[in-house]
Amino acid sequence: MNITNIDDIRKLASGDEGGRTEYKLITGQLERGMETLCAFLNGEGGTVLFGVADNGKITGQEVSDKTKREIAEAIRLFEPFATITVSYANIPDTDKQVIALYAEEQRYMRPFTYKGRAYQRIESVTSVMPQDKYNHLLMQRGGKYSWEAIPNPDLQISDLDENVIIGAVRAGINCGRLPETTIREEIPAILEKFDLLHDGKLNNAAAVLFGRNLYDYPQCLLRMARFRGTSKEEFIDNQRQQGNIYALLDAAMSFFFKHLSLSGKIEGLYREEKLSIPYKALRECCINAFCHRAYHRPGGSVGIAIYDDRVEIESSGAFPPDMTLEKLLGGHSSEPPNLIIANVLYKSELLESWGRGISLMIDECRRAGIPDPEFHTDGSSVWVVFRYEMETAGQASDKHPTSTRQAPDKYPTSIVRLIELIGEHTCSLKEMMGMMELKDRENFLGNYLNPSMEAGLVEPLYPDQPKHPKQKYRLTEQGKALLERGE
């Protein structure tokens, strides 16, 4: 904004000093004026006027070359480089001018400092910015200052799960987002390509994506609960799991299949699943929660709460500062707060790159005939609510028939799902995980295969040699009987 007209000055000086305007009588108060300008840069922008009294009276001042040099030198003391517009408005019938310093909003460059200090503006008061707010803005700036990009000298490649890394690479190659030669590269080279390793040091994003030992990352946590009824008064199931994004995503989907009604049709080795809430909508919501959450808060987490009438998925963080709910639900570009994490998830085909996640969730819910998901935020967390028709015991809705069919009422849906997928086939571990779209081996073994074998429903071909190179699994007679009763 270039202010050269005295009428523009009168308009600016006609109101009270507030969050976006400051009056200074002369440039003898240049230091205080620049501190306020720094506060404007750290907010929504604003204007400092020199030659205007506190009461808004326009007095002006004489402007020399020395005055202009002092202003230019002061502007150079902002870090990072700030775009400041300097205007001089002549006062009619005098040799005096009003100097206007205008700072436009520069949200993605914050925080700014003047002479090494950051300032903030609250109403008409300029003050030194608290350290915690400065750190928060610094992480929001992204690049080398973002939490995900900060190196962790104690994190070693041995702390990462190589199988998950290779799985991500294979997925990226299969979808054409990574060149086929990537699979032949060493793990350090792959991590460098993923922007997770620099100068021999792994960053925080590496732990979030592929970490196996996450003792230093309490925020890599998933909370899961199934409540009886529509309130939090009584638990049916309550779990907590810590791990990397891929492991937590598998755990989340397992929890949904355990507690939501399921129906579907098997064709060959593959099955089209129909949960009370569409599988793709829940998966997309979880991926977004893990990708876009605020990881710099150690106490943060992702939470899943299942009630009789709804599912709520919550994560720490907030929508982008300029993202309204209307813009969120309409067409919008993707602005991930965690660029490194988002890039790896995109290359491994988990994440869409064009902001289509929300529209996908809405489309899936409409296709299933349930209400659109609801999106909420309170500035520190985001939660999505999926509503579905309540089902009473033994009386499933026509829209959402239960898959347990209650012949095997003692078996969780996750086990029944595995039984139905195996059917008449004999499958390897890799084949079963592929059919279920699961990537985390430990999660599959702990929540699906091992419980099915312990229940006597699934058996290995080589029971005395669990690690036999040709090991495969099939249904026992009990498992086949269960499958027949459910059809």
Automatic annotation (TrEMBL):
Ranges where the Schlafen AlbA-2 domain occurs: 17-126
Gene3D superfamilies, A to Z: 3.30.565.60, Schlafen, AAA domain
GO terms for MF: DNA helicase activity; hydrolase activity
Keywords: ATP-binding, Helicase, Hydrolase, Nucleotide-binding
Enzyme nomenclature, EC number: 3.6.4.12
InterPro entries named in the record: Fic-like_C, RecG_C_sf, Schlafen_AlbA_2_dom, Schlafen_AlbA_2_dom_sf
Boundaries of every Filamentation induced by cAMP protein Fic-like C-terminal domain copy: 415-476
Pfam short name (any one): HATPase_c_4
PANTHER family: GLPR-RELATED TRANSCRIPTIONAL REPRESSOR, SCHLAFEN ALBA-2 DOMAIN-CONTAINING PROTEIN
Name of the molecule in the record: ATP-dependent DNA helicase RecG
Annotated organism of origin: Butyricimonas faecihominis
